[in-house]
């Protein structure tokens, strides 16, 4: 009996050891399976991310192709002396403006059929409600403004292009006609120079002289409205305190009110001391006006399989960038009646055959050379 009991106990212990081995094996298989599934999931995810990035790049390039197509239409219109055509509908050329290729309703413009790459929507606004210029410094920008209604308020905002070294608390305490040297300017904002002139109708030298509004908008530590009235301040220099958000670098604002009842202006902007990003807007009452003649916005959505990329760009539609701040530009000839050298100004006596039809060159009596002029 004892032998049988001992044999049964031995068999029982042997069966238990086999069960433990099975459990250990099953746990090990589960752990290995989970590890394999985890690696497979990570691999699929990375593969999907790589594919999405590739498709996103293709969609971006497709959108850029749409921008190029739109720019070609805009350039052709400008070269033909026609207004920049707009496009307000994704599917069709509702105004017959000639953006190519024409869009059948519900269809996209296919660029690569084999890889399902296209751009599905193209919008063009030739009169955006705001104009933006980045990195404006001493090389000024000249902005033509054509508006559909009388401007009651013209607003220019500017902000630093990057985190500046100066502090807002070190801006001037108040406006002054004696400007700081570049090396002494510690304010975090640039000072905006603005020249505004109406350009409706005939523009003459006399009208330019009498109707131009010239102002320097100076950031100050003290709160200011930033408002300047055109009426009563044209044809003279102005220094105005800008409306700036001090304490954190946000933006400064200059607001021109009391404008003449015309619909065409030319605006020259310069950021002194440091470059700035500028935004120009105009209002009739509370309505923000579209500004044509300077920029057009192109909005394009590119598509690659099921991935979409939408981009919006601003393109110049006229020659408004002018870096020659101290040059004369004329549509006709000029008659130069003087010589200038360091510390010396003289009237030469060797002018021959002056252009008497030109007001600048009619016969006049000149004095003798003057030193120190």
Which structural class do you get from the secondary structure elements?
alpha+beta
CATH topology of the domain at 131-292: Jelly Rolls
What distance lies between the first and last C-alpha atoms, to the nearest angstrom? 137 Å
What is the H/E order? HEEEEEEHEEEEEEEEEEEEE
Shape: elongated
Percent of residues in helices comes to: 10-25%
**Number of helix segments?**
2
What is the percentage of strand-forming residues? Answer: 25-35%
- CATH architecture classification name of the domain at 131-292: Sandwich
Q: Return residue spans where pLDDT drops below 50 for at least 5 consecutive residues.
A: 102-106, 320-327, 351-358, 363-373
What is the makeup of the main sheet?
7 strands, mixed
Radius of gyration over C-alpha positions, nearest whole angstrom: 35 Å
Task: Give the total of beta strands.
Answer: 19
So what's the CATH class of the domain at 131-292? Answer: Mainly Beta
Task: Give the mean pLDDT.
Answer: 77
For the structure shown, list the relevant keywords.
five-stranded mixed β-sheet; alpha+beta; elongated; 2 helices; seven-stranded mixed β-sheet; disordered C terminus; 373 residues; Jelly Rolls; 19 strands
Would you mind describing this structure in some detail?
The longest helix has 78 residues, at 2-79. The chain is built from two helices and 19 strands. Among the domains are: 131-292, Jelly Rolls (Sandwich); 333-373, no CATH class. Strands 3, 5, 8, 10, 11, 13 and 14 form a seven-stranded mixed β-sheet that branches. By secondary structure, the chain is an alpha+beta fold.
């Amino acid at each position: 009996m004892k032998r049988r009991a001992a044999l049964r106990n031995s068999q029982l212990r042997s069966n238990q050891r086999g069960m433990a081995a099975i459990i250990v094996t099953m746990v090990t298989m589960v752990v290995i399976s989970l590890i394999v599934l985890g690696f497979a999931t990570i691999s699929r995810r990375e593969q999907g991310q790589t594919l999405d990035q590739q498709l996103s790049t293709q969609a971006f390039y497709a959108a850029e192709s749409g921008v190029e197509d739109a720019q070609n239409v805009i350039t052709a219109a400008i070269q033909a002396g026609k207004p920049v055509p707009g496009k307000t509908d994704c599917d069709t050329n509702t105004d017959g403006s000639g953006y190519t290729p024409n869009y059948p309703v519900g269809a996209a413009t296919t660029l690569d059929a084999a890889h399902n790459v296209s751009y599905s929507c193209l919008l063009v606004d030739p009169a955006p409600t705001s104009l933006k210029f980045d990195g404006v410094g001493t090389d000024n920008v000249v902005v033509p403004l054509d508006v559909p209604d009388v401007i009651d308020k013209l607003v220019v905002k500017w902000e630093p292009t990057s985190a500046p070294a100066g502090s807002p608390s070190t801006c001037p305490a108040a406006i002054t006609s004696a400007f700081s040297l570049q090396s002494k300017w510690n304010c975090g904002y640039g000072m905006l120079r603005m020249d505004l002139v109406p350009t409706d109708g005939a523009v003459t030298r006399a009208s330019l002289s009498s109707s131009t509004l010239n102002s320097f908008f100076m950031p100050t530590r003290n709160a200011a409205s930033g408002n300047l009235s055109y009426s009563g301040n044209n044809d003279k220099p102005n220094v105005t305190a800008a409306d700036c958000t001090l304490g954190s670098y946000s933006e400064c604002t200059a607001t021109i009110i009391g404008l003449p009842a015309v619909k065409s202006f030319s605006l020259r902007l310069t950021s002194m001391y440091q470059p700035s990003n500028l935004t120009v807007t105009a209002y009739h009452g509370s309505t923000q006006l579209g500004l044509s003649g300077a920029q057009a916005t192109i909005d394009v959505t590119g598509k690659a399989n099921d991935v979409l990329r939408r981009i919006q760009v601003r393109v110049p539609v006229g020659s408004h960038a002018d870096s020659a701040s101290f040059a004369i530009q004329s549509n006709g000839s000029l008659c130069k009646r003087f010589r200038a050298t360091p510390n010396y100004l003289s009237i030469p006596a060797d002018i021959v055959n002056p252009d008497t039809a030109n007001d600048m060159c009619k016969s006049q009596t000149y004095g003798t050379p003057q030193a120190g002029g």
